[in-house]
């Protein structure tokens, strides 16, 4: 659990003080209690099974840094979330969302990685404050204090979970303004992030100026950017951005340029294309979709074709050309993805196949990914779902391959009581030719009040 920071303490005290000055009838307390039971198996070789779970198309988490994201062999615990909402006056409302955790009812069992039991949601039996977010808003502005899940500024700057800080969004003289100060998570415990963006709608063009800065232990990183969205016609839109990047360490600092176009050729056919070029010395601090941080050119071409009201085909081709920093033997990486979205009565279905050549810019490293999914709304209260992922990752003869199945059942007893169940199964072989096999069952009863 994270320690209760001074910032969150301030937010909590402020939120509890506000109702004292508000009309009592304007304050409303709501909450949710989740009771969870989980059981899992890691097979005869738990290390191999964990490696399969960690893959980017399965759980996509690191067992060393995020052990709680993995299934426990045995766990029984309860989570409690609650919110306090109300009105300070006729124009200003407040909302305090607090996540707490009543820790395990039983001893958690599971593989131990880096001293932590996989699937363990807490270490004590006490009621522990996990996170809190205070939101104040009126008709124009919104001010947030506290824990911000999935905080996003830019892929080239910061796009992380569980940051703490302050964020203001407002409108000034016809311009949309956003300002934030955030910091503190497991990856960047000593880094503070600052940002201000100002956007203005000029009719067919929307311009946004951006200033971002990160500071860490005497070092700094600054991004100055201008982005534009342009409607060329009712069917064609273009957006682009230019980023000037500068870092205090060494001679880091370069530019990023991107542009995208989207064109609806007919009611059934939509085309899109994009290009992004990042300089060799472009500096970043975040793990994100930006290709290995710097020195590449990315090209994308795609199309969607609506066969009818129930079926849509999609195709995307992506090529990444690496620069010198990737090594003299770096190859262009290409990806082709084909997808079908289908609606058939109460069924919503998806199917996709993706082929990648020269993954990691390595000749002979090819990946094939097949995904299938379906969701069946049985009635107004029960939903069934199933997903399948089959992956083959062949790196010059060292092949990681697996099949991953997931099935779920959600049943709403009422508007406030919901019961969800999920079964997952994975089987495959690691690149070191170790067999892995894992399964998990999770059931959760959620009660809102």
Automatic annotation (TrEMBL):
Residues 1-22 form the signal peptide. Keywords: Signal. This is Porin-like protein. It comes from Orenia marismortui.
């Amino acid at each position: 659990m994270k320690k209760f920071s001074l910032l969150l303490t301030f937010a909590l005290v402020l939120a509890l003080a506000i109702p004292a000055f508000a009309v009592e009838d304007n304050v409303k307390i709501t909450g949710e209690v989740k009771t969870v039971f989980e059981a899992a198996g890691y097979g005869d070789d738990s290390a191999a099974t964990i490696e399969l779970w960690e893959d980017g198309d399965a759980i996509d988490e690191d067992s060393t840094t995020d052990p709680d994201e993995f299934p426990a062999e045995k766990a029984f615990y309860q989570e409690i979330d609650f919110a306090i909402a109300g009105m300070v006056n006729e124009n200003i409302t407040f909302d305090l969302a607090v996540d707490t955790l009543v820790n395990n009812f039983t001893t958690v069992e599971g593989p131990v990685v880096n001293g932590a039991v996989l699937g363990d949601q807490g270490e004590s039996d006490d009621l522990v404050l996990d996170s809190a977010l205070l939101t104040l808003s009126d008709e124009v502005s919104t001010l947030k204090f506290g824990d911000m899940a999935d905080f996003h500024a830019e892929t080239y700057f910061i796009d992380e979970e569980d940051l703490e800080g302050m964020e203001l969004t407002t409108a000034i003289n016809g311009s949309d303004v956003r300002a934030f100060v955030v910091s503190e998570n497991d990856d960047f415990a000593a880094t503070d992030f600052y940002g201000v963006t100002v956007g203005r709608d000029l009719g067919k063009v929307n311009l946004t100026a951006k200033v971002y800065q990160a500071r860490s232990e005497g070092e700094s990183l600054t991004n100055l950017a201008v982005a534009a969205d342009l409607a060329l016609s009712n069917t064609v839109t273009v957006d682009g951005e230019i980023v000037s990047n500068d870092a205090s360490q060494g001679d880091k600092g370069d530019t990023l340029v991107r542009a995208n176009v989207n064109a609806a050729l007919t009611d059934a056919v939509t085309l899109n294309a994009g290009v992004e070029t990042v300089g060799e010395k472009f500096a970043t601090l975040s793990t994100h979709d930006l290709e290995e941080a710097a020195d590449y050119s990315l090209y994308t071409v795609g199309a969607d074709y609506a066969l009818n009201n129930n079926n849509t085909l999609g195709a995307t081709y992506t090529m990444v050309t690496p620069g010198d920093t990737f090594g003299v033997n770096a190859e262009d990486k290409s990806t082709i993805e084909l997808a079908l979205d289908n609606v058939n009565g109460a069924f919503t279905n998806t199917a996709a196949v993706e082929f990648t050549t020269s993954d990691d810019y390595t000749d002979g490293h090819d990946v094939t990914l097949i995904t299938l999914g379906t969701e069946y709304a049985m009635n107004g209260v029960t939903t069934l779902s199933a997903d399948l992922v089959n992956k083959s990752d062949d790196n010059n003869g060292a092949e990681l391959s697996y099949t991953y199945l997931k099935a779920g059942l959600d049943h709403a007893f009422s508007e406030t009581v919901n019961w969800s169940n999920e079964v997952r199964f994975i089987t495959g072989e690691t690149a070191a030719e170790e067999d892995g096999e894992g399964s998990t069952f999770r059931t959760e009863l959620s009660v809102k009040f």
